[in-house]
Description:
15 strands, seven-stranded parallel sheet, Rossmann fold, alpha/beta
Amino acid sequence: MTQLKPILSHLDALPSTPGKFKPDKTSPYHRLSRLHPSLSPRLTLWSFFVLFLVILFLFCSPPSATTAVSNTAVNGGKRRNLHTAAVLGPSLGPNWENRVWASARPTSKAGLSILVTGAVGFVGTHVSISLKKRGDGVVGLDNFNSYYDTGLKKARNSLLQKAGIFVVEGDINDAALLQKLFETAKFTHVMHLAAQAGVRYAMKNPMSYIHSNVNGFVNLLEICKSTNPQPIVVWASSSSVYGLNSKVPFSEKDRTDQPASLYAATKKAGEEIAHTYNHIYGLSITGLRFFTVYGPWGRPDMAYYFFTKDILRGKEIKIYEGVDHGTVARDFTYIDDVVKGCLAALDTAKKSTGSGGKKRGAAQFRIYNLGNTTPVPIGRLVSILEKLLMVKAKKKVIQMPRNGDVPFTHANISLAQKELGYKPTTDLETGLKKFVKWYVGYYGSKKKSSAW
Ligand SMILES: O=C(O)[C@H]1O[C@H](OP(=O)(O)OP(=O)(O)OC[C@H]2O[C@@H](n3ccc(=O)[nH]c3=O)[C@H](O)[C@@H]2O)[C@H](O)[C@@H](O)[C@H]1O
């Protein structure tokens, strides 16, 4: 993190709305020449010379520098201007370029060069480390937003640094930054995991979902389609797209036009947007529908995580039930299984066909369920946690509020099995054991239990 600080402080110092700046009518030149009329001709000569140098500089700058005028990013609710980062900052200068370039370089002969967005997120961290371990080049991009404990994100970033992965702090909405990244490294693949996650939070902060899952995604695809050669894109959709679909198990062919939350609606929108970019520009795109992914280094906003915290603190937990005491269940999927699915999607993807924004032929477009195929009732999830934590939970069973949650999820994974060789092997009890072990180690030893 420490090396990212200079970038931050540099960016924070920049005005967020350049248009608001009033021109200074009493410029130093005017003031000086009023005081010393004899200086005027000499100053004019110098002014022309300086102007010439400025024009020369602008001409020689990469396009990102000149197109970067109006992009802003929202980070942790704070509006910061990242646009000129690509233009001015010594922070994005040769040292930054070297780090990006070195991190993007594969260490194995057949290795890929991958930009992982959302790299300090839960899935992003695991995927990045697995890719790096097998010899791929990996550069991370993440805005480190404060949707949940940023301390956890920083700790994940330390893991990535130790693995030799450079994570750039920035937002997928920042076109200039993305352009600069693609100019610096020749990415063969983009693993797009940056998103506003969480089903229930969408009622509190709807615009954050549009910002990241719609605007940000389009911004990223715009850069990908214009890059030459175009990278292959693999990205995270969600089981939530099945919404109120009642046919089980959920198959990729089932209807996905009844989302129950804005989160689900933005992921569904993402799938349609992806199709458009595939159709018009020849981008090879694979969408992965993740089913309630859990495990070590997980997300504190998810039920298994905050149930663990609350059980340990003796705090009451609310277990949702459906209509007429119906069971609410999830097809919980362990992180290592999902990572294997992500890597298989990258490895089996065919190349994009377009270049420089022009399609040259039909490109691959795929969508897969990455689930576990075994839905588990929430009551059972709590019993497993009680056993592992050796603490009785204070349970309150309540009717599921109207908050965007769906009553159950259940993946049919036969397509992913056939085409990706995807085969989940971790049952919920085994996976939660690994999670609890990590949780106790992480919060216990570091006394961080107040974080989430
Ligand atoms: O597969 C996905 O695409 C999504 O998975 C995840 O959503 P969900 O499956 O809803 O997981 P999560 O919130 O952990 O709730 C788990 C269960 O606990 C129940 N639940 C929840 C809260 C509570 O207080 N009580 C309760 O019973 C609740 O009703 C539910 O049945 C990701 O967060 C989301 O980003 C997305 O990736």
